[in-house]
Amino acid sequence: MQAHCVRGHPAGLLFRFGEGAAIELRCLRHALVQPQVLRTALTMSAVVGTILTIINQGNLLAGGHFPAQLAWKIPLTYSVPYCVSTFSALRISRVR
Ligand SMILES: [Zn+2]
Hints:
By secondary structure, the chain is mainly α. It has a domain at 31-93. 58% of the residues lie in helices and 6% in strands. It has a two-stranded antiparallel ribbon with strand order 1-2. Bound molecules: zinc ion (ZN).
């Protein structure tokens, strides 16, 4: 028998969230938008991304320079902690 996501559709890969009677199973797509996973990843992205941007590009930004390559470097810097946080949350939530 195939397990089902909290949204009702069958899913091969499931992730468990909550505890006690409030446990819910989610497929990958719905696990990625689980509110706690999303909130934690966005917070980590804001904090760690800002620190890394200051460390790596702070001298340029403080000097008033904004070279074109920062248009992709800064978003990439923020996306790394977001991905790490999301991956970690899903890794510990995966149902085996
Ligand atoms: Zn789902």
